[in-house]
């Protein structure tokens, strides 16, 4: 089908990956992710993107922290075999899916640059993270996620 998203099986795959990331249109994907995890940090990447190669191990370290929000990589504008090799080489601690036909990228209207990060909130709203554009440390990610989360009462 045109909306198929393939799971790259590196790292811990989310519960029921086929149900979560099977042939799902973007809205269904985001809804199921949010239902499962509340907040989801989405990172768009490609095997040809040098900056992604630097950033993704940092995202992987962040993903292993107990307080981390769920991280989901989305591979765009790439060759599937290259993407799989790349994800395997980096031994990422979070799942990635391949946006083979660009449906996810179109749904989020992403600009033509990588890497790109978005935070999906429990209400389904999506905020692009632009500060910083590229994560250089786990602290960068923690700060950006904290800023993108709506302030909760009592905090």
Largest sheet: 6 strands, mixed
Radius of gyration: 14 Å
Q: Biggest sheet, strands in spatial order?
A: 1-4-3-2-5-6
Helix fraction by DSSP (H/I, runs of at least 4): 25-40%
The helix-strand sequence is EHHEHEHEHEEH
User: What is the terminal-to-terminal distance?
Assistant: 45 Å
Strand content: 15-25%
Secondary structural class: alpha/beta
Inertia-based shape: globular
Number of helical elements: 6
Rounded mean pLDDT is: 78
Number of strands: 6
**Stretches with pLDDT under 50, minimum 5 residues:** 1-24
What does this protein structure show overall?
- With 155 residues, the protein is of the alpha/beta class.
- Helices cover 37% and strands 17% of the residues.
- It has helices spanning 17-21, 26-37, 50-63, 80-90, 103-107, 138-148, and strands spanning 6-8, 40-45, 70-75, 96-98, 116-120, 126-129.
- It has a six-stranded mixed sheet.
- The longest helix has 14 residues, at 50-63.
- It is globular, with a radius of gyration of 14 Å.
- The chain starts with 5 loop residues before the first strand and ends in a 7-residue tail after the last helix.
């Amino acid at each position: 089908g045109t909306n198929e998203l393939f799971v790259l099986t590196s790292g811990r795959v989310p519960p029921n990956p086929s149900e979560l990331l099977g042939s799902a249109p973007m809205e269904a994907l985001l809804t199921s992710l949010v239902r499962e995890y509340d907040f989801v940090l989405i990172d768009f990447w490609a095997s040809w993107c040098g900056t992604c190669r630097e950033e993704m191990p940092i995202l992987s370290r962040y993903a292993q922290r107990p307080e981390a929000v769920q991280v989901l990589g989305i591979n765009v504008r790439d060759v599937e075999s290259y993407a799989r090799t790349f994800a395997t080489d980096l031994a990422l601690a979070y799942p990635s899916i391949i946006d083979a036909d660009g449906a996810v990228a179109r749904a989020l209207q992403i600009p033509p640059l990588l890497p790109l990060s978005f935070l999906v909130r429990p209400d389904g709203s999506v905020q692009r993270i632009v500060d910083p554009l590229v994560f250089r440390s786990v602290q960068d990610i923690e700060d950006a996620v904290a800023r993108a989360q709506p302030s909760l009462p009592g905090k």
